[in-house]
Amino acid sequence: HISTERANSPTHSYKNGDSGAGNYGNLCDARLTSPVMTNLPASATLSFYHQIQSEISGAFPDSAYDGGVIEISADGGAFTLLTPETGYPKTFRYTRGGGNPYTGPMPGVPCYAGSITNWTRQNVDLAAYSGQDIQIRFRFGSDAGTGNEGWYVDDVSVFAPLGITTPQNLTAYR
Predict the structure, then answer these.
(1) Among 5, 148, 159, 162, which residue has the least CB neighbours within 10 Å?
(2) How far apart are the first and last CA of the chain?
């Protein structure tokens, strides 16, 4: 949903979490999807700012139970994972041993998770999708355990050397 709790630039951002100051629910699979962007220019880049407070594994420092990913659909196809230039810091848990197994919607997938409390800019190279019609999706999943504040995303843009496109009318699904 749209939140006024935190924003990189005034006055709101997308938040997966409680509509107030509470925590996100168990077993969520929430998505924020852009409209179709046609004929993506060469050398396009996705840019956005984010903050996250989500459950990670205490036993496995590289693992998370709750977190967010970026996905893309090209020419109406299925959504697939996009990897940011800096990579994802965690991976969703998927097996038993030393901690609980993951029960959410994306086991084994790299993700943003943990505690990123300052607005952080992320970039994703979209050059491989040049000339295609694309949709970008921000997806957050949680397991059946502990909830936290959630994932905030703000100032989303797709730009190329010749211009900037700011997606309008993003649609959130819960």
Answers:
(1) 162
(2) 9
127: helix, strand or coil: helix
Which pairing describes strands 67-74 and 80-82: parallel, antiparallel, or unpaired? antiparallel
- The pTM (predicted TM-score) of the whole model is 0.88
In DSSP terms, which residues pair with 38 in a beta bridge? none
- As a whole number of angstroms, the distance between CA 87 and CA 96 comes to 25
Strand order of the β-sheet with 110-111 is 63-64, 90-92, 110-111
**Mind listing the pLDDT tens digit for each residue in 45-82?**
999 999 999 999 888 889 999 999 999 999 999 999 99
pLDDT digits (tens, 9 = 90+) for 114-172: 999 999 999 999 999 999 999 999 999 998 888 899 999 999 999 887 655 666 666 66
Q: Can you spell out the DSSP letters for 40-106?
A: PPTT-EEEEEEEEE--B-SS-TTEESSEEEEEEEETT---EEE--TT--SEEE--S-SSSPPP-SS-
